[in-house]
Amino acid sequence: MPPTLANDDVALSAAMADFNAAAELIWEAASPTCPDLSIEVRPEIGSTNTELMARGRRGETSTTLLVACRQTAGRGRQGRSWQAALGDSLTFSLGLPMRLDEVPGGGSALSLAVGLAVAQALDAHLTRLQGLPIGLKWPNDLWLGGRKLGGILIEASPAPGLDEGQRWVVIGVGLNIRDGAAPAGSAALQTSGLLHPDHTPDRNPITPGQVWAWMAPVLLQKVQAFASHGFAPLQHAYSQRDVLAGHPVGLWTTPGQGPADGHPPSQTGLAQGVSETGALLVHTDQGCQSWTTGEVSVRLQAR
Q1: Between 238 and 303, where is the model more confident?
Q2: Fold type of domain 248-300
């Protein structure tokens, strides 16, 4: 066997051991409030979100955490690609039944609640030399030092066997652990300078499994709370991390057009935070307007 393949096998084995150890910690923390939780670790998968959505269509709707060492066909918002190279990224999904349509703001608000949960979980393990290091960019991005650290993808659909009013909801999380295959200009935890001094690139480097163990129990707890109480109790905490609030933004509202395509924004304005239902508030020439996920793409603009 060529040395490169042998090295890859060793790295994959180590990654599987890392995630399996994390799965035990997650189960210990989460099982008291979620006893039916299933936790799965895969060496490689196309997309954890795609897999769980397919299970929902087959009527397999027990609460499931699915993580992969490598993800080859990951998806972000509006169909963007999110690849996960071995050891460079953490990509996992949580699937569960929810009465999502009964929660004010629905999936749009859930995306914000998930981002806040992930940021709070990470903060517990980061140094805080500059206050709250993890920012949130509406509707689904985590930011660190003005650069994208990770993203969230919410998908939902009816599923066989669910109670009336329930939907199968899949929450996907992608986070850059090392620079590696991350897009140019992105942030990564390992090189952020905000990890505890015991975790540096050269000394006891942080692993995707460790970060998963930090995040997953908090995510489960916060999603359960969101299902009961909605986004309103989280509005203030979200505002403390909102990287758009108070800044000029561009809004792209025409389907098929966005900032990545070089199109100018449909409107511009000053971001005013988010509402109790998770809608983005922007003061434009037409007055204060609100936007929900799926209606608009938004980017910071130069002053």
Answers
A1: 238
A2: SH3 type barrels. (2.30.30)
